[in-house]
Amino acid sequence: MENTGKKMLESAQDIIVKTAESLGLDQITIKRLIEPEAIHELNFPVKMDDGKIRLFKGYRIQHNSVLGPYKGGIRFHPNVCREEVQALATLMTIKCAVAGLPYGGGKGGVLVNPKELTESELKNLSKQYARAISRFVGSDIDVPAPDMNTNPKIMTWMVEEFIKCHSLSGKSENCLRATFTGKSVNEGGTLGRTEATGRGGVMVLKALLSKLRSKIQDLRSLTIAVQGFGNVGYYFAKIAAEEGFNIVTVSDSKGGVYVKNGVDAETTLKCKEEKGSVAGCYCTGSVCDIKYGRTITNEQLLELPVDVLVPAAMENVINKDNMKNIKAKIILEMANGPVTDEAYDYLTKQGKIIVPGVLANSGGVIVSYLEWYQNIKNEKWTEEKVNKKLEEMIVSAFEKIWKRSQEKKISLTQSAFETAIENIVKKW
């Protein structure tokens, strides 16, 4: 999907250019902000179960390191392309700067459909990709993490191969292990990492709603629609419901369900695992029954008359075709780039509050930083300590973005990008 990747890259670069120009920055500085420092395009061999060798294409793009080591996930997907990886690396630079982390932005990807591989082939692929990037990643250089279709098991395979590649480097195993975050807990991963992105989104929503108390009296009566039921959408829905919010609809790529009395995320996940999709899982409490709800499409979900819309799946889902039908007062971007530029301009003028993904979904990279820190210091924190530190950091980032947006009378998105760009530029 090169066109989608190209649009995503153009969108990311466009907002950086516009923001930088509004700050009065010169053209050379603007070019440094949008151009990646390094693009690694890889072709690496993987032995398949039938004994044959197959060549895979992968990327690792290192966008900006002025604030510290590059940081960003690795995705396995059949639509991975250079433009998409570059766009995501660019947004990671902004996200880390918004969150106040000592990181720059990077991203990786492999052009593959992991569902077509056996477990042993997936393991070989992961190890060979780690070997291919081992020359230019490290705990003080570039720190990869999980992303779409990668997980703690895959990160553990990668770090094992990386340690093997650097066994004669003289570096401590703690330092080598810190190169990859999002690992299994027994392999140096941190407690709280799996839920971190969804949990961070709920923390940001609560912080926003605390600022809107004069406009919204009964916060707990707010209705929330969540598009996407992967790691991010699932944990957002689960934790938000635990906080008392009413999640009335969730969906996956095949469609979703509307449950007026509130979706139970855990029961819905069990139902999805049995049925193969969320559609048909009308679950409230511990019971699933068609009398509790109805099936809806992803398109219908986006246009529901809810208070908060949480796009937590794909990019560009809110666009010129449906922007006039969006009824939610608040859009919390838990996916990367779910709102196109045209839709963003229109919805902002309509008075909608859009919380940008570079802030809303930064919980994952914040806890990745906490994992990296624990590895470097050879420490093990409790989950309570991790969650407390996450809340401190993400709410602090929100407060700065909110304050600037109010003082300058600008959107949260513009405020976030201005804050990030200023943090980067003052280090040059």
Kindly describe this structure.
By secondary structure, this protein is an alpha/beta fold. It has two domains: 169 residues, Rossmann fold (3-Layer(aba) Sandwich), CATH 3.40.50.10860; 165 residues, NAD(P)-binding Rossmann-like Domain (Rossmann fold), CATH 3.40.50. 45% of the residues lie in helices and 18% in strands. The protein has 15 helices and 14 strands. The strands form three sheets. The chain has a seven-stranded mixed β-sheet with strand order 11-8-7-6-12-13-14. Helix 4 packs across helix 5 and helix 7 packs across helix 13.
Topology:
Blueprint: H1 2-22, H2 27-34, E1 38-47, E2 53-64, E3 70-77, H3 82-99, E4 104-111, H4 119-133, E5 142-146, H5 152-165, H6 173-177, H7 196-211, E6 223-227, H8 231-242, E7 246-252, E8 255-259, H9 265-275, E9 283-284, E10 287-288, E11 293-296, H10 298-302, E12 308-311, E13 330-332, H11 341-349, E14 353-355, H12 357-360, H13 363-377, H14 383-408, H15 412-425
Parallel strand pairs: 3-4, 3-5, 6-7, 6-12, 12-13, 13-14
Antiparallel strand pairs: 1-2, 2-4, 7-8, 8-11, 9-10
Helix pairs in contact: 1-2, 1-3, 1-15, 3-15, 4-5, 7-8, 7-13, 7-14, 13-14, 14-15
The residue-averaged pLDDT reads: 94
Derived from helix and strand composition plus strand pairing, the structural class reads: alpha/beta
Task: List low-pLDDT spans.
Answer: none
- Termini Cα gap: 35 Å
Determine and state the CATH class of the largest domain.
Answer: Alpha Beta
* Percent strand: 15-25%
The geometry reads as globular
> How do the helices and strands follow one another from N- to C-terminus?
HHEEEHEHEHHHEHEEHEEEHEEHEHHHH
Major sheet size, sense and barrel closure: 7 strands, mixed
Count of individual domains:
2
Q: How many strand units?
A: 14
The CATH superfamily of the largest domain bears the name Leucine Dehydrogenase, chain A, domain 1
Tally the helices.
15
**What percentage of residues falls in helices of 4 or more residues?**
40-55%
What is the CA-based Rg, rounded? 21 Å
Strand order of the largest sheet: 11-8-7-6-12-13-14
CATH architecture of the largest domain: 3-Layer(aba) Sandwich
What is the fold-level CATH name, i.e. the topology of the largest domain?
Rossmann fold
